[in-house]
Amino acid sequence: MYQDIATIFESSSVPTFFMVGDNGWLDCADADESYMFWKKHLLTFHERTDLGWPELGATVKHSEDHAEFFAFVIRDVLILGQGLPGRGQDRDHAWNNWDAYLDGNVDWTRKAFAENNFKAVVICGNSSKFNNERYFEGLQKIAKQYSDVPILFLGDEHDFQEEFEFRGLSNMHRIALDDVVTPTLITVDPYATGGIENVFKYDRRCPCAGNHRPTELFSYSSGRCAGVCDTNKYCLNEDAESVRWGED
After folding, report:
1. What's the CA gap between 235 and 205, in Å, rounded?
2. How does pLDDT run across 215-228, given as a tens digit for each residue?
3. Starting from the edge strand earliest in sequence, which strands make up the sheet with 61-62, in order?
4. Which of 55, 147, 152, 222 has the most CB atoms lying inside 10 A of its own CB?
5. Contact by Cβ (8 Å): 240, 209
6. Where in the chain is the domain with CATH 3.60.21?
């Protein structure tokens, strides 16, 4: 699976980073083995020199304790990669002290905030609910200390969600992507005025064509969606011809 993912993203035109998730890690029969595969194929994917990528223009740092944590600053925006999967089905793995693991995530966030200069922050993780509450309690405390810095948490909850004033803080915004409408273009302007909604903007694209912008999850038939968006009430701004996708 990880080999296939790496092959797919070789077509990316820019350096590419991956967050670790529970479905391909802690849900596996051997979580240590799956983590090894993730490290082998995806951990340093952004360092590939054989794909003609432009220079990232930033120094990427990884946690010594948990390689899946990373941080870098680009154009005054701090990008944080966190290890926030669901807890997983297998409890017998190296991360079975879940509270300590989440505390490690908090420590990495705090360290990145303290050691870098930035005007906005994007935190990338997998889940923002349930088993990771301990992390978000820590993040909330950090965000209060940096109340003048706009912060975006970008995660995955299988359906699209948007939450202004995340956890009651005016400087935090949360977006959770769904598992059909991809990719989503996130634009960050750390110098924008007029509120956090002007700092972080996003553009969701329908998988079947051009500039469609679905407003909620839609169940497509297996293997294709040719013609679906011509009449799909969930798609707005239809201006492109539908194309085949999926198994084809």
Report:
1. 9
2. 444 444 444 444 44
3. 61-62, 70-74, 77-81, 120-124, 151-158, 172-178, 161-164
4. 152
5. yes
6. 2-204
